[in-house]
Amino acid sequence: MKNFNIAGGALGILGALMMASALAQDFPAEQIKLGSDTYARHCSPCHGSRMKNPEGAFDLPTFPKDQKSRFLTSVGKGKNSMPPWDGLLKPEEIEALWAYVYTGDNN
Ligand code: HEC
Question: Best of 36, 39, 66, 79 to mutate for ligand 1, by most ligand atoms within 8 A of CB?
Answer without folding.
Answer: 79
